[in-house]
Structures are given as C-alpha cells and as structure tokens.
Amino acid sequence: MNYLSRIIVVSVVLISCLSSVCLAGNFPSQAVKAAEKFTQLLDNKEYRSAYSASSALLKMVDTEPEWVKERELSGLLLGTVQDRKLVSIHARDTYPGLPDDEYLVIYFEARTQRKAKAAEVLLVSLAGEAWQVCSYHLK
Q: What confidence tens digit (pLDDT) does each residue in 95-127 have?
C-alpha cells in the first residue's frame, strides 16, 4: 500500500471514529438529566418518589410495594451507589418485554459500598414532552 493510500485509510477510520463520538452528543440532554435525577432519588433512598417519577411502563411491570422492596433488597446486597460515570447511550426502537417505541439505554459505570465495579442501566423514553425511566437495573 503506498503512502497516499495509507493516509486515505487512516483518514476514513478517524472520521468514522469521530462521527461515532459526535453522535453520542446528539442524544437529548434532558434524557440524561432525567436518568440522573432518577438515580439521585435512589441514592437518597427515595424509592417511592423514584417510582412516582417513572413511566407508566415501569408501573405496569411492578407495583410500588414490589418495586420499593426490590430496591431495598438491592441496597442491602450491594450497598448504595458511591460513584457513577456515564459510559454510553444507545438508541433502540425495541426492547425485550416492552412495546416498540423510541428508547434510550443509558449505561453508567458505578461503584457501590460492596461492589467495586457495577453497572447501572436505565431505559428511558419520551412520554409527552418529558423523558421518563421505563426500566432500572443495578448489576
């Protein structure tokens, strides 16, 4: 491969990588803010408030007492989240167990009291003009 061909290949690869990074910035900041607000409620053990702020889809899957109990058990097992870092956001138009719609999967790398490396995964969707959490998992 000659020098010019190498420059072209490297340029194409760099442009592709930069485009991917730029695309991450195109996701609505309100969706990330909704996810962060939701996780703050959980950090403060305001489980009922988090449930109230969640989407109708989450409420169809779990009743409030069931959901609160799951969060409390998770807190006992892993401890509260001490630190989190936004890692990625992926758009999806389908999600297992939920109707087809436009969703964002927001992935945080987290550290809890009893787990050095955990993952928080939130699924959010636009309900009217507000982003709401449809699903939350701490793994």
A: 998 999 999 999 999 999 999 999 999 999 999
Distance of CA 95 to the CA centre of its chain: 13
- H-run or E-run covering 78: helix 64-78
Other CB atoms within a 10 A radius of the CB of residue 105 amount to 16
pLDDT tens figures, 5-41: 333 333 333 333 333 333 345 578 999 999 999 999 9
Domains of the chain, residue spans: 28-138
φ/ψ region of 80 (left if φ > 0, alpha if ψ in -120 to 50, else beta) reads beta
* Phi, psi torsion values for 94, nearest 5 degrees: -145, 150
The predicted model scores a pTM of 0.79
Q: Per-residue pLDDT for 129 more than 80?
A: yes
Tell which residue, 32, 54, 19, 18, has the closest CA to residue 105: 32
| Residue (of 51, 84, 44, 85) closest to 68 by Cα position | 51
Residues 41 and 47: their CA atoms lie apart, in Å, by 7
CA angle at residue 35 from 123 to 82, to 5 degrees?
110
- What is the architecture of the domain spanning 28-138? Roll (3.10)
